[in-house]
Structure formats: structure tokens, C-alpha cells
Amino acid sequence: MKENSKESGKGGKTKFTDPQYYTNRELSWILFNRRVLGEARDKNIPLFERLKFLSITASNLDEFFMIRIASLQDMVKAGYEKKDIAGMTPVQQLAALDKAVHELVELQYSTYNRSLFPALTQSGLTVIRSHEQLTREESAYIDQYFEENVYPVLTPMAVDSSRPFPLIRNKTLNIGAMVRGKGSGDELEFATVQVPGVLNRVVELPERDGKRRVIFLEEIIERNISKLFLNYDIVCAHPFRIMRNADLTIEEDEAADLLKEIEKQLKKRQWGQAIRLEVEAGIDKRLLKFLKRELAIEEENIYTIDGPLDLTVLMKLYGLDGFESLKTPGYEPKAVPELPAGCNIFDEIRKGDILLHHPYQTFAPVVDFIRQAAADPQVLAIKQTLYRVSGHSPIIAALAQAAENGKQVTVLVELKARFDEENNIVWARMLEKAGCHVIYGLVGLKTHSKITLAVRREEDGIRRYVHLGTGNYNDATAKIYTDMGLFTCSELIGEDATAVFNMLSGYSEPLMWNKLTLAPLWLKDKFLYLIQREQKYAKEGRPARIIAKMNALCDRDIIAALYEASAAGVKIDLIVRGICCLRTGIPGVSENITVRSIVGNFLEHSRIFYFENDEHCELYCGSADWMPRNLERRVEILFPVEEPALKEELLHILQVQLADTVKASVLQPDGAYEKVDRRGKKAVCAQDQFAKEASARAKAASAERTASKRTFTPAEHR
Amino acid sequence: MSVKTFAAIDVGSYELSMKIFEYSGKDSMREIDRVCRRLDLGSETYATGKISADKIDELCRTLKEFAGLMGSYKVDGYKAYGTSAIRETNNSAIVLDQIAQRTGLKLEVLSNSEQRFLDYKSIASKGESFRRIIEEKTAIVDIGGGSIQLSLFDNDTLVSTQNLRLGVLRIQEVMNHLNVGSSRLEQLVDEMITAQLSAYKKMYLKDREIQNIIVVDDYISPWAVRRAGSGKEESTIDAEGFEELMELLRTTSKTELARKLDVVEEKVPLVFISAILTRRIARLMGAVKIWAPGVTLCDGIAYEYGESLKMFQGEHDFEQDIVACAVNISKRYMGSRKRAETLESIAVTIFDSMKKVHGLGKRERLYLRLAAILHDCGKYISLVNIGETSYDIIMVTEIIGLSHKEREIVANIVRFNHSPFVYYEQSMGSKAMGRETYLTVAKLTAILRLAASMDRSHKQKLKGLKAVLRENTLFLSVATMEDITLETGYFASRAEFFQEVFSVTPVLKQSKSF
Questions:
Q1: How close A603 gets to chain B, by Cα (Å)?
Q2: A448 catalytic, yes or no?
Q3: What is the pTM of this model?
Q4: Residues paired with residue B17 on neighbouring β-strands, in sequence order
Q5: Residues 71-110 of B with CB under 8 A from A
Q6: What angle do helix axes B318-332 and B362-373 make, rounded to 10 degrees?
Q7: Is the ipTM above a cut-off of 0.85?
């Protein structure tokens, strides 16, 4: 009996941590990208939107290679054999991924070739696949285009025994050629030229028979390649693309000791080892052999592509003018009824907490909040965490303005936001110049929390206004990502917010937190506590239920706790967009758990957590996923939403997502995701419904305001 | 009253902290921000007597940040105090000057008794909870790194306060030397403190039964506060709750404790020592309830500022505590209570009538009262050198709420009440006090001397004293039927010094009312 004890000490071996109950996170990620690909394959979706989804799968895969596959390859080379959550060694993972990625790529290109390419032609846009298919006039046109626009920016490079193999830059598209020196015998040499990133890769040709025609830049260069190597005869020329192990991006999900281990073992590692080579199908064997040898790349990492390399080019096609009927009309975020344009945001917040649901509702009030704070003479200080901001961020401008207005402005800039480092440094400098106090977070921890605090001196003393969010303070992505935001002037949250910034500024943590829960120190325990509380209630026969929405679920402790809760009878519904290492439908383990993923026009990004708590339900939002990196190596904030009306609203959001029958895929016991079986159910698309609801609420509020404006005010007799 | 904001800064031995408070009306002191950063100034000062340049840099950097934060709240005032680490630095004047130059902040140094007094005020900042608890017999146990302070309350008033060299860091140091394992720690610490505490019990506690203990420390207080949860005012622990903590401390690993108590690991042994201390003291006193309000020096500093704004009228009278303390010291040295009361009353009457001339304030009036109360404590040792012996007794006896300098003032007044006055220009010792302070000593001495002469026979003959200042004459009229020849004689001789100090001639008039 004792053997079956369900006491789960931290890291203790129990039935619920058995690797067979877990899915490898990389393989789960592949499934996620397949769901996105599913959108590209969905004939109910406008053609150009499908192009966009296919493009997204390509850029997703690029990132996946640079970060995850690179990291696994490093582990294998370092001889690191620690098993993952699902009990797989790095070698096993790579082998499984090799197969899965090749399948994914095949599916990407069959989608392009068999369905999107013909559909485009049918819709009046011809993509000319190779320069050989050009008409005579078109050839003349592109040759001239080449001379005028392309030639000046090209840097051709030839390799012979005296010159080393040139550095081929990560992710760039190149044209490789085998050439033979004129009059120098039989010896073949290698030459290469990068397809310049500064030029649009999609080149539109003059219309023909009322049809629009485009060709990709690499074809134009290929056609003219002999002009680049005048002293040579071109034997063959083909595009190729390589992916390198992005420097310093060994994923931090693995323990720190692993990092050290790898560093030690890979001292001799060449800078940015090539980890993937993409070549055109039909590439000359001699060229391929040369590339393979020079890049020292293994057979399994070579991808022979039947179609254009680097499908992110499809986003450029999407951007072509016209074809509006083949795109989903752009969505304009709606006004927040509680915060009509021109209102004093502080006054409105004092009336009660305000919940914002982006992008259905506009992000403008968040920008206005900072703008108004910057201008308000009563505001003493503004503090904010910034992770990723848009190029010309109005938030940055407002913060700079606030500092110039003499407010104390403290901005935490997270420099370690992946792929955004350079961008971040630029505006961090700008803020410093304006007189803001810029801090760079805590050593070893990424600051992922999204919080803004405005301290205002009012008649009855200091009052603190706080905005908490699940998404970044980025006005551009706020139009695409679904996120929650909360405005409040609750004293308890205000105190906590002050403490958060003090902590981020290097001061000691507070004695205790009132309302907020922070990672890395307290958040995981809090979640485990909340899950275990449901478990306890379930055992006592009281109502117990968990609904949680997030982007990724791969923390073993959390999953084990969920399994245990499920086994105790807690009904658990999870809405996980991306990676999910939890498996459903395991008898005695996860029969009470469902997992669904919503992939739609907007990127699902909000994290919402519902705990039944014996009919005293608690609802939280936060910046953290249930991933080890979020819970253990980042500064994250979980905040409760406590006003009854707002709780209703949040619960409604979860319920609509659980009712989605259009964009939702459900995780099956066999590990596959399947679209909801819609028989007998009406079509519910959560994202569409939220858009409609936001629109209706904004209209109602605006009508009400107009109505109230129409009330005539009788003049008083004086 | 408009809203005021105030910053209280504590440059402690192991931590720098600042709290910002807001006062928006009667009894409405609200903490609106607090920052705290660890900086170990103590170890260095205690070992070398100096603070290194690195530490000063770090100190200044943090204080500058504090100043910035203060600025952002647009505070109306601030107080920055250094405690033992700064106090025990040989070059503290240089350190203070550097701080002033580099941060613009004026850092003042608290003596132990001032610091303890502020700690005590910090408890008072808890308002109603504090008032309720001191209605019963209560002891305040203020646990610091180097020493602890035990203060006893009876009936709403402080009756005694003693400093014992039983600070947690000091104890830890001893234990480190002994190299004891944690299993024996409890027993050894208990043994060590019991020895010192038994002397305390014999001398001061006697048979007093104490119901409540208020703990001020940085070790078990955070635990107690968290245990009580947010929103609740009182964080009291009964014996059972305390045993729970002891059991936890005994049986849990350091790492686990650090997690459970939410403290850094190196602090865990200090929590243990603090808990052992508290438990031993509670047992010694027979206390049943322990209250750890989790207040800090900053709260006391802010409370004092609130007092200056007259925020807490009708609250606890802290001056009375100082007086009560002096009375108890006098009692210990068998001073005459009656004589002291008479003297105090006469002296205060003269003081009040002379306000225009001496220009001294409320605080100086307190010195005078204390000097009157303690005027004869030296008799306990010698009936001949009363001045010197009284001076010595006062200088080595802590009076809570008085700084070292203030204590020196009181001791000098008492001394010169008996011995010939030594002029400022005549002694190095007096120069060390500064001209202004010494002038205060002279003025108060003159008043006390005159007052003493009026009760020369120690028979409290002069009742119903009235004092009126007209031009350059101070008319002192007494209504008594008794013979005051002795008093009149002494009066004349003492009047001389009084006249010298104030240029006012005192005249004693007897109005016999039949």
C-alpha cells in the first residue's frame, strides 16, 4: 500500500511523474506548428491568409532550429545524456525530430505546391517558378531590373584552393555555383553570392492578359549569374540556405550546470556551426557535395526542397497591393466602454477596476494612461517594465516626456528579450537621455512581468494606479495578440506594485505580498497550492474545477499536480496554444483533463487561471506560462481579478474558448490534435465572438453617451 | 491639516532601510513605501573601528538612491539616523561629513538609549494595539545584534529599562567559537543567557509578574507578521504557537527553514537564537502572550515626526516614561522621593517664570526635572562628594530616551548643584560639550541651585510658591508659617550665581497668611 502513496514530495518519484505520461516538448511543438499549417491548408480560409499561415510555420521552424535543435545538437556533442520529461535522451529526441521535421517540411511544400500555388494562379497571380519560364519581353525586363537594381548590391565570391570558404550568413538565401575558369582546364571551383536582404524578394512583372505575374529575386540573379563571374563559365547554379547554431542561445530551460558543461566540452566549437542546409531539389550533385563538405553538415540535416527556399517570402506576397477579397478584412480594436476617448483615466479607475481584452478592445487606453500620467501635475512617479516594444513606441515617447516633465520615471528594460537585444539597447539609451532611471533587471533572471505603476499625490494622500497585463507593452502586437489587462487603484495591489519595483531596483523583497504572486520565488508554490486545494475539495466531495489558459505547459511539477488532482476527481480543462507535455485520457491519471489549442487569426497569448475553490471561485491572470523557465528563471507576476463583474467576464472568456468548434483542436489520448467534432454543435469561433461582443459593447456605450448628451439642461432662473 | 510626507532612514549595522510615511490627519500615519538593502557595516566597524572606503561608497550610493526616492515623493521632511555601526566608528565625524557631501543627507547618530526609545516609539505607532497591551504588565524585549534591551511597563508607564549584552550576533559569535552543533545550540544558548538574566531578575525584575512580552527584532518578527497574515493588526503568539516555531527551528534543515521562514539562509541561526532568547525571557517573567508587531526603527522615527506634527494627541506620554525612569533610578540609590518632588516643583516654577530670560524649551525643562529627581543619588556612595558621585552614577546609568549628550547635561547640572561651577573656559571637558550646551548647563544649574537653597532644611517648608518676573527681579513668594531663616540665608548665597547667569536678582518673600 505504501508504494502507492500519493504523497508527492518535490522531485519525489511518484506514479504521476512517470515519463510515459509525458510528451516530449519538441515533438509537441512540432504538433503546434502543424496546427498552424492546418490553417494554411484550410480551404475555408481566404487564400492570402493561408499564405500568411504558411509563412508563419516557416519562420517558426527557423527559430525552432536555431534554438531548440541547435541546443539538442550541442547536448549530443557534449555527450550529455540526461533524459527529458518524457524520458528521452537528446540523441533519441534528435532522431525523432529529424523524422518529424522532414515530414513537416514536406507538408509545408506540398501545401504550397499542390494547393496554394495553383490557387494563386487561378486567382490571377502567377508566381513564375523559374526564370526559364519567362517570356522574351519579361526576360528583357528583368535583365534590366538586374542591371539597375540588383547588380550594384551584390557581392559575388569565388573560392579556389588559395581562398577559404566564405562565411555564409545565418538564414540568408544564397546562390551557389560550380564554375570553371575560362581556359584553365577541367577544375571546378565554387562561387557564391548572397541574395540581398535589402531588396524585396518578390519582383512584380508587367501585367499580362490582365493577370499579375511575379518572380522571386533569386531567379533573377540566377539568370544573370554569368555577369558576376566574367572570367568563368558557369557549370551550374542553385539557391541554398543555411541555418546556424545561433550564438549564445542554448535554451535556458535546462539547468545552469548544463550550460557550464556544454561550455566546457565545446571549447573548440566553431562559431555558429551550420545545423541545417536547405537546397533546391535537382541541385547539381557536385555542388551539393562541395557544400556538404565545407559546411561539415550531416546528411540528415540537409533538406531538399521542392519549391522556393525560405517560405517566409509568402508574407511578402501577402503584402502585395490588391487581392483584398482574398484577405480577411483588418480588425479595428474597439473602444473600452469604461474608458471613452478623452476621459481622465485616473477618474475612471477610481470608479472601479477595469478589465481590458486585447485586441478586441483597443490598447490605446494603456498608452493614454502613461501619456496622461506624464502630463498630470499630480503624478509623482511612473514605473514600468518593458520587454518588447514596437519600433516607434508611443509608450517610450510618453515615458521620456514624463521624465522631462520632472516625474521620477523608472523603467525596467529587459535586454535579454530574444532576438530583440539590439533594438532594446537603442531605446534604453534614449530613455536614459531623457532622464529616466533605466534599470536592467536582476542578474540571471529575465523580467517577463508586465506592470506599470503611476504614483499620484491626491488630496487625501498618495494613491497608486496600476496596470497589470499578460502581454507586452507593445502597441503593434496588441493588435494581433490576445491579451488581458487590468487597471486598478486597489491599495493592496498598489503596495505590491511598489514592492515589485523596489525589488527590481535591487532592494530586499517585502515582508509579504498582499495580492500579487511573483516568480521565481513564490509563483510555482502558489500554483501548486491552488491545484492541491482543488484536489482536497474533490476528495471531500465538494465542487472542484480548474480551467487554465496559457501558451505552453511543460512544467513537470505542475503537470504531476494536475494528474494527481485529476485522479482525485478534479475536472480540469486546459486551453494551451502551443507546447503541451501533458497527456490526456490516461486511465487513473488524466481522465478528467481535457486540452484544447486555439490557433486563429489572432495569436492566443493571454494566461487566465480559474480555480473553483469550493464555489468561491478565484480568477487570476498573469505573464507566466506553466513552464520551468517562467516559473523558475523569470520575474513574472500573477494577479487576481476580484471584482465580481470582472470575474464573470474572465470566466466568460474561458467558457467561450471551451465552446469553440471552429478554431479549436483537442488533444487526443494518442497524442494527436484533432479539430472539434462539430456534429450536432453550432459553429462557435471564439475570436469572432469576442470581436462581435467588443463591438456591441462599444456601440452600446457610445449610444448611451450620445443619448445622455442629448438631454437638454434647463436654464436655471436667476 | 494638509497631507504631509516624511522619510525615515535607518543606517543599521546590517541593513540600510528607508520608509516613506504619509500623514493625512489625526492618527493617520500610513507607510507608503519601504526600501531595504543589505549592507554589512557592523562587522567591519566592530572589528577595526573604521568603515572602509568601499563600504562608504556603497553606503553613499544607496543613500543617494534613497534621496532620489524621497525627492520623487516630494517629502516634507526626513530624518536619517545611524545606529551602532556608525556610533562605534572611530572616524564617524569624517563618515558623516562624507555622506553629507556626497548625498546631501544629514545623517545623525543615535545613542543606544535614543535608539531604544525610538524602537519603543515604533511600537506605539501601532496605536490601539499598543495601548491595550500595556494596560497589563508588559515587557518590551528589543533584540539587537550586539545587545538586548529589556523595558518593563507597569500601569501604562515605563518603570525600568536595562541593556544586556545578549545580542544575537554576539551570542552567535560565542557559539561559533565554541563550535557547537545545532543540536546543542539550544541548550548552550539557553544556559548562557540564563546566567545573565538571573542577575537581571534579582536586581530589577524581583517578584514582578509580567503578562505580555512585546518583541522588537528582525528575526522572529517577520515570521510572526507573516503568520498572522495581511490585514490583521495583531500578530500575537501564545506559548503553544511559540513552541510550534521552536519545533520547526529544531527539526528543519537550514535550507528548508530559509524557504519556510522566507529569510536568507545565513539569517536562520539568528532566528533560532532570537527565539531561544525570547522564550527564556518569557519564562523568566512568566509571560503568557508574545506580541511581535514587526516594527522597525523607521516606524519610531516616523512616529516621532508625527508627534512633532501633533498627530497623536492624547496618546502615550513618552516624557513621563523618561521621568519615571529617573524616579526609579533615584529610588534604587535611596534618594528622597519627597525632597525630589519639592525640588522639582520649585525648580520648574522658577524655570517657567523665567522663560523670557533663559529662552530654553520643553526639552531643557525635562533636563531640569531629571536633575531635580536625581539630585542626590550620589549620597548612596558618599555623603561628602555628592556632586562627583552623583555625576558618575548618572553617567553610567542609561536613561531611556536621552542621548549621551543629554545625559551629560543632566549629570553636570546635578554635579554643579553640589560642587563649585567650572566655567566653560576653564575645562577641556566642558569644551567638548560645546559652548551652547554648556550655557544650558549653566542656566539650569543656576535654577536648580536656587531651588535647592529654598528647601535647604529638606523639610519642604516652602509651599505654594509663586514666582513673578518684573524687570530684572524675580519675586519668589512663599506662603508658610514656618521659620525660613536657613533657607533665606542659603538663598542669598545662591542668588549670586543666579544673578551672574541671568542678570536677574531673585528675591525671596514670605507671606504669612494667618
A1: 38
A2: yes
A3: 0.83
A4: B10, B36
A5: 71-74
A6: 20
A7: no
Rounded-to-integer distance, Cα B290 and Cα B270, Å: 18
What are the domain boundaries of chain A?
Answer: 23-326, 345-515, 518-700
Q: Which of A460, A505, A508 sits opposite B38 (nearest CB)?
A: A508
Of the pLDDT bands very low, low, confident and very high (cuts 50, 70, 90), residue A13 is very low
Residues A486 and A354 sit within 8 Å (Cβ to Cβ): yes
CATH number of A345-515: 3.30.870.10
- Check whether residue B458 and residue B349 sit in a common domain: yes
The H or E element that residue A71 is part of is: helix A70-77
Catalytic one of A238, A357, A448, A605: A448
The fraction of chain B above a pLDDT of 70, given in percent, is 94
Residue A678 in this model has a pLDDT that exceeds 90: no
Q: Domain of B476: which CATH number?
A: 1.10.3210.10
How many other CB atoms are found less than 10 A from the CB of residue A231?
Answer: 10
A-chain residues near B222 (CB < 8 A):
511
Q: Which fold has domain A518-700?
A: Endonuclease; Chain A (3.30.870)
Are residue B95 and residue B141 in the same domain, yes or no?
Answer: no
Domain count, chain B: 3
Q: B400 and B287 in one domain?
A: no
Helix count and strand count (H, E) for chain A: 20, 27
Least confident interval from A533-542, B216-225, B428-437: B428-437
Per the CB < 8 Å rule, is A511 touching B73?
no
* Rounded mean pLDDT, A92-108: 94
CATH architecture, domain A23-326? 2-Layer Sandwich (3.30)
Q: Classify residue A334 by its DSSP letter.
A: B
- Is it true that A23-326 and A518-700 share their CATH fold? no
Instruction: State phi, psi for A630 to the nearest 5 degrees.
Output: -75, -40
- Which residue of chain B comes nearest to A383, CA vs CA? B72
Whether A620 has a pLDDT exceeding 90, the answer reads yes
Give per-residue pLDDT as tens, A297-349: 888 889 999 999 999 999 999 988 888 889 888 889 999 999 988 899 999 99
Interhelix angle B268-285/B168-178, rounded to 10 degrees, is 110
Instruction: Using CB atoms, pick whichever of A455, A506, A511 lies closest to residue B226.
Output: A511
Distance CA B34, CA B21 (A): 9
Contacts of A489 in chain B (CB under 8 A): none
In a domain, B130, yes or no: yes
Which of B22, B63, B72, B230 is best to mutate for the A interface (most A CBs within 10 A)?
B72
Same-domain pairing of B481 and B372: yes
User: Are B101 and B141 members of one domain?
Assistant: no
Residue keyed to cell 464555489: A615
pLDDT at A418 exceeding the cut of 60: no
What are the tens digits of pLDDT across the range A352-382? 999 999 999 999 999 999 999 999 999 999 9
CB nearest A460 (choices: B24, B38, B71):
B24
Q: Residue B410's domain spans which residues?
A: 318-510
What is the average pLDDT across A614-631?
92
